Prior knowledge:
Blueprint: E1 3-12, E2 16-26, E3 30-35, H1 42-50, E4 58-67, E5 70-71, H2 77-83, E6 85-88, H3 100-106, H4 114-127, H5 129-133, H6 144-156, E7 162-166, H7 174-191, E8 194-199, H8 202-208, E9 211-216, E10 219-225, H9 226-231, H10 233-239
Parallel strand pairs: 3-8, 3-9, 6-7, 7-8
Antiparallel strand pairs: 1-2, 1-4, 4-5, 9-10
Helix pairs in contact: 3-6
The protein binds adenosine-5'-triphosphate.
Keywords: Amino-acid transport, ATP-binding, Nucleotide-binding, Plasmid, Transport
Family: Belongs to the ABC transporter superfamily.
GO molecular function, one term: ATP hydrolysis activity
Amino acid sequence: MLLGLNNVEVVYDRVFMAVTGVSLQVPGQGIVALLGANGAGKSTTLKAVSGLLKPERGLVTKGTLTFDGRDVTGLAPAERVRLGIVHVLEGRRVFPHLTPMENLMAATTMHGDRRAAAHRAEEVMERFPRLRQRARSEAGYLSGGEQQMLAIGRALMTAPRLIMLDEPSLGLAPHLVDEIFDTIAHIAAETGMGVLLVEQNADAALAIAAHGYLIENGRVVMSGPAAELRDNPDIRDFYLGGG
Ligand code: ATP
């Protein structure tokens, strides 16, 4: 397994337990979906993995995180990025006044080699023809779907081994939702990385995932192969709108 969470607990403000002993695993290849309603603890789980909890507010108070067999529970966020863990936060946080290419290059300046970065940015652009078409626009003027693609593209600049996506379909028009999920499926199939996908859009996520976990109130209440979860009557009733 590439990523393992073993009984991880996250407490906010010393009192509120947002994640209550979550255990889950993500292999080095393919997509794992993390599903659940608003406030279930999905984003908090991702932040525990990337280390992006604000230390003065949220703390991992129990459990361990392993990445490629190594205990990363206490590592700084930048060290986790260096190991290959990248987290695309909810809400398409691109630099609005930079072009798509400048956004991609901004992800790598600290790593030095500009020529290698430019080459990598070209590869990322190949994957997102829409971004190439909008090459001269400031990112703030791109559509929601294009900004989401740019946020994913920027994450790919670091050549990650694990990419975590927080609600990539949030707020997008239905045809763009399909396009984003297609793109994620392609990235997972072609680049050989593990994907941990947080979604409220359970049907679309389970359509491209191999495995899924359902969390409620900070704990895993169900997990299994994606096809089984799609057929599960409880999941259908609560998360897929019945049928
Ligand atoms: P959503 O889909 O709405 O983002 P989620 O499943 O990702 O939901 P989290 O954002 O992980 O849920 O939140 C889990 C719980 O922790 C919620 O009750 C939320 O109010 C609380 N919470 C989240 N972030 C903080 C914070 N920085 N400080 C205090 N409580 C927080």
